[in-house]
Design brief:
The protein is of the alpha/beta class and 249 residues long. The chain has 11 helices and 8 strands.
Length: 249
């Protein structure tokens, strides 16, 4: 058990492309009404763009923050379909996911683009949650650390001042939405590797979340690890009670 965890825990829900106004309203109400059960950590939900205003209206003034799941690297202009960091800030977002594996895999986002998106988010006063993680094939080939280092390189190149203001999320692709979680020891080993890269840069206190099939039943054992500072939660964030039970862990 880790008794000297100094970094404040953070649990972020990633709704992905789920939601509908009526269902969102009851989810947001459920979160808001019971958030005090999880007051020992920072909590946020990252919702689809069209529901940002609904999240703002439902959560404003409470202890749960909100954010988006992607952002443009551009400030403004002729970029049809893109959403800028300033627009997210305009809706009261504090958080934005960048480089989620679904964006990297299905939308061709490169390591460099992810770092550029993180920069755009920081410039608008948002905290980017930079996601990294290896595929099953990469893991089986023993390339986990190498892949993470490659994904992180352009982000770490932003320098200590910028990196000190991000949150990182380690999400092994083989654990996302599969019900297959990394063991606490597996995740801890990767987090420790990331932590030493952060320490080399002079920012050892950056929070590193774990993501990939986190649920109430496995959260406590993950959070017991010294370098796991919280979770990025997909499926289980769509049920208020389950999400808050993770946060309470
Ligand atoms: P999951 O998703 O919790 O449903 O595995 C995590 C994520 O993709 O952020």
């Amino acid at each position: 058990m880790n008794t000297e965890h100094t970094r404040r825990r953070l649990v972020i829900g990633n709704w992905k492309m789920h939601g509908q106004r009526a269902a969102n309203a009851s989810l947001l109400d459920g979160l808001r009404a019971n958030a005090s059960a999880a007051s020992a950590c920072d909590l946020a939900v990252c919702v689809p763009f069209p529901y940002l205003d609904q999240a703002r209206a439902g959560l404003q003034g409470g202890s749960i923050a909100w954010g988006a799941q992607d952002v443009s690297k551009h400030e403004q202009g002729a970029f049809t379909g893109e959403v800028s960091a300033a627009m997210l800030a305009d809706f009261g977002c504090q958080w934005v996911l960048v480089g989620h594996s679904e964006r990297r895999t299905l939308h061709g986002e490169t390591d460099l683009l992810v770092a550029e998106k993180a920069t755009a988010a920081l410039a608008a006063g948002l905290t980017p949650v930079v996601c990294v993680g290896e595929t099953l094939a990469e893991q089986e080939a023993g390339k986990t650390q190498e892949v993470i280092a490659r994904q992180l390189a352009p982000v770490l190149a932003l320098g200590a001042e910028q990196v000190g203001r991000v949150v990182l999320a380690y999400e092994p692709v083989w654990a996302i939405g599969t019900g297959r979680t990394a063991t606490p020891e597996q995740a801890q080993a990767v987090h420790a590797g990331i932590r030493s890269q952060l320490a080399a840069l002079g920012v050892p206190e950056v929070r590193i979340l774990y993501g990939g099939s986190v649920k109430a039943s496995n959260a406590a054992s993950l959070f017991a690890m010294s370098d796991i500072d919280g979770a990025l939660v997909g499926g289980a964030s769509l049920v208020a009670e389950e999400f808050l039970r993770i946060a309470a862990a």
